[in-house]
Task: inverse folding
């Protein structure tokens, strides 16, 4: 499989790249700066995305919202629009998005981001990722998309190759912990790329 990976040097993106390459896939990494041997392009530039996506089998968007104190929703939605339009122009139907956990439900109609315990410092980022999910749901019906939310906590760790898959509900263990290693998140994402079992919906993954 030939994969265009936008955001290839981040904590999650770098692990997706490594997991995919280790399985024999070809990964073209993209960053805004073109650092570390990646292609330079902005995710919100549909023409640039299309040029890089041409001939690929899938596009993966693995960028985080801006964390510079600015309002993060508009830039993230612009990136989502650029990737969807770029994929269409390139004739690529498969799009997988690295999402956030904040929009997962902890009770019917209650999102994690709306709970009193949710850290204020991450709230705007979580809301932006939730906005991107709704944007994709409303605008990507012609594409084979999947939005993959991690557990409440995702961090570098061990690749076990084992994970659980859910839907719109936050996955937790018997003690209420919700965690996935970035390595196992990458396993789950590449599994979804290969198998395509969750087309047109959001899934959540956790250890």
Result:
């Amino acid at each position: 499989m030939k994969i265009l990976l936008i955001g290839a040097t981040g904590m999650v993106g770098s692990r997706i790249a490594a997991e995919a390459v280790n399985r024999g896939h070809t990964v073209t990494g993209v960053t805004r700066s073109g650092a570390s041997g990646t292609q330079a392009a902005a995710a919100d530039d549909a023409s640039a995305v299309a040029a890089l996506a041409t001939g690929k089998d899938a596009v993966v968007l693995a960028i985080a919202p801006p964390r510079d104190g600015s309002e993060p929703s508009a830039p993230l939605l612009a990136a989502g629009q650029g990737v969807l339009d770029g994929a269409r122009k390139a004739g690529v139907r498969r799009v997988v998005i690295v999402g956030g956990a904040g929009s997962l439900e902890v009770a019917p109609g209650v999102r994690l981001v709306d709970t009193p315990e949710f850290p204020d410092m991450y709230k705007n980022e979580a809301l932006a990722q939730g906005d991107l999910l709704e944007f994709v749901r409303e605008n990507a019906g012609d594409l084979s998309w999947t939005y993959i939310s991690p557990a409440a906590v995702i961090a570098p760790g061990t690749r076990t190759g084992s994970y659980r898959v859910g839907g719109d509900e936050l996955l937790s263990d018997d003690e209420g912990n919700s965690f996935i290693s970035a390595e196992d998140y990458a396993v789950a994402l590449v599994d979804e790329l290969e198998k395509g079992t969750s087309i047109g919906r959001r899934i959540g993954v956790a250890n």
